[in-house]
From TrEMBL, chain A:
Protein name: Cysteine desulfurase
Family that this chain belongs to: Belongs to the class-V pyridoxal-phosphate-dependent aminotransferase family. NifS/IscS subfamily.
This enzyme's EC code(s): 2.8.1.7
Record key words, sorted: Iron, Iron-sulfur, Metal-binding, Pyridoxal phosphate, Transferase
UniProtKB/TrEMBL annotation, chain B:
Pfam families for this protein: NifU_N
Residues of the NIF system FeS cluster assembly NifU N-terminal domain: 1-122
Descriptive protein name: NIF system FeS cluster assembly, NifU, N-terminal
Alphabetized InterPro entries for the sequence: NIF_FeS_clus_asmbl_NifU-like, NIF_FeS_clus_asmbl_NifU_N
Cited CDD domains: IscU_like
UniProt feature coiled coil, ranges: none
Any one GO biological process: iron-sulfur cluster assembly
GO MF entry, a single one: iron-sulfur cluster binding
Length: 385, 128
């Protein structure tokens, strides 16, 4: 059976070109980038090259890129290290209700330690409105963090407007761009963000690596303590093969982005319309237009998400859901609830996220089997007569 | 994550549907938690001669519902009352720990159906 992977917001396969670029840094070029000798210097050059590739994708300068172990670390550093390194700033923090747990839980950690936290609501489409942020700003607001695009429902936030509001109020602005780097054009200067988190494995790079963009002049501070790597901002021997892979993935994303964005937008549109038109009692979640390319998130009434996923999996189709059963708790995802969906609707959520290797035939296959799966499950459901 | 037996009952559930004029019906769970199980039974001479279920929920919820209907068909009411959520889970070669609380309610739905039958029988005696 052909496997149809439609869970690219969870992770992506490593591009073969990325993998090939990494291999020598596990074997022949294994040096520690801090070593003076030839092997060390080869590793150093490779890390420097990756830094310039990441910087180019983000519109940043090389000195503004700090390699981390991934998006979670980058977000934690942006939030927790920035605040512990800037104790003179105010004690009020702002984020949104639909952030990834890597951001939300970092803020909750600080709220338990005496910081005042405002969690902004979102519209039914999942947008954080600049006016709502403006109303929440206080003279003591030190940091505002709003994600660039949501992982579950795909809504893209007006980051430039939000950053302007934060700056007008004297606060620093961070964005979790794990879902958008490589998928949407990013220019940190134009967006005017102070910090931005990215993760390699969302853009066909390896897992276990990512970066934090830190605008010149922002004193973020180190999260870990140890050596002087990454100018002291990320102590620990560099994950050279991972960084090389991430850099190569950034290079490829930079080259392929416009073509992929157009293609995924078109394919995602067809998938979305096909589902909504063929399945009654289904609804799109997230914004109808301002959404990640190739991200289709829907809710089906009267059925439960995990059941949909397992049935799809039996046809080789791999997707995800924000139902309680898949969130590992008794509640459906905090994102779906923040959009105002009732629990019983949120339980029937399905997220299909397309990637570069998906084809129109993949979309056809989903549109062929999904209506039957939903009908079959509804046939078992006591909620549906 | 799930045993082969769970997947078998989930993909090919037994006894799905409703019984016309059931001897008893039971429903447990609620849509807010994401699991609802409805069981209808037909009882003749103290034996459960037919049983059907309808379930809203995850694979564990559907598989336990299917399994309990298979376990109880042809059994006496006394035997049926011995079935517990635990024995249903065991008959499926176990469930993931997180599913034991939220989605393992099929025996409760069965017992609710039996209680409903008993109540109706008692009412009949009361009337006659």
């Amino acid at each position: 059976m052909r496997e149809i992977y439609m869970d690219h917001s969870a992770t992506t396969p490593v591009d073969p070109e990325v993998f090939n670029a990494m291999i020598p840094y596990y074997t022949d070029r294994f040096g520690n980038a801090s070593s003076i000798h030839t092997k060390g210097q080869r590793a150093r050059q490779a890390v420097d090259q990756a830094r310039s590739q990441a910087a180019e994708l983000l519109g940043a300068s090389e000195r503004e890129i700090v390699f981390t172990s991934g998006g979670t670390e980058a977000n934690n550093q942006a939030i927790i290290s920035y605040l512990s390194n800037n104790p003179d700033k105010g004690r009020h923090l702002i984020t949104s209700a639909i952030e990834h747990h890597a951001v939300l839980d970092a803020f909750l950690h600080l709220a338990k330690r005496g910081y005042e936290l405002t969690v902004l609501p979102v519209t039914a489409d999942g947008l954080v409105e600049p006016d709502i942020l403006k109303a929440a700003m206080k003279p003591t607001t030190a940091l505002v963090s709003i994600m660039h695009a949501n992982n579950e429902v795909g809504t893209i936030q007006p980051i430039k407007e939000l950053a302007a509001v934060a700056h007008a109020g004297g606060a620093v602005f961070h964005t979790d761009a794990v879902q958008t780097v490589g998928k949407l054009p990013i220019d940190v200067e134009e967006m005017d963000v102070d910090m931005l988190a990215a993760s390699s494995h969302k853009l066909y790079g390896p897992k276990g690596v990512g970066c934090l963009y830190v605008k010149r002049g922002i004193r973020v501070g180190n999260y870990f303590h140890g050596g002087g790597q990454e100018r002291g901002l990320r102590p620990g021997t560099e994950n050279v093969p991972g960084i090389v892979g991430f850099g190569t993935a950034c290079k490829l994303a930079h080259i392929n982005l416009p073509e992929r964005q157009t293609r995924l937008n078109k394919m995602g549109q067809r998938l979305k319309e096909g589902i909504l038109n063929s399945i009654p009692h289904s609804r799109l979640t997230g914004h109808p237009v301002k959404r990640l390319p190739g991200s289709v998130s829907v809710c089906f009434e009267f059925v439960e998400g995990e059941s949909i996923l397992l049935m799809l999996d039996s046809y080789g189709i791999m997707a995800s859901s924000g139902s309680a059963c898949t969130s590992g708790s008794l509640d459906p995802s905090h994102v779906l609830l923040a959009l105002g969906l009732p629990h019983e609707i949120a339980h029937g959520s399905l997220r299909l996220t397309l990637g570069k290797d998906n084809t129109e035939e993949d979309v056809d296959k989903v549109l062929e089997v999904l209506p039957n799966i939903i009908q079959n499950l509804r046939g078992m459901s006591p909620l549906c007569n | 994550m799930y045993s082969q037996k769970v997947m078998n009952h989930f993909m090919n559930p037994r006894n799905v549907g409703r019984i016309d004029l059931p001897s008893g019906s039971g429903e447990v769970g609620n849509a807010v938690c994401g699991d609802i199980m409805h069981i209808d039974i037909k009882v003749a001479d103290n034996i459960i001669t037919d049983v059907k279920f309808k379930t809203f929920g995850c694979a564990a919820a559907i598989a336990t519902s299917s399994m309990v209907t298979e376990m109880v068909k042809g059994k006496s009411l006394q035997e049926a009352e011995q079935i517990t959520n635990q024995t249903v889970a065991e008959a499926l070669d176990g469930l993931p720990p997180v599913k034991m609380h939220c989605s393992n309610l099929a025996a409760d739905a069965l017992h609710a159906a039996i209680a409903d039958y008993m109540r109706k029988e008692a009412n009949k005696l009361g009337v006659s």
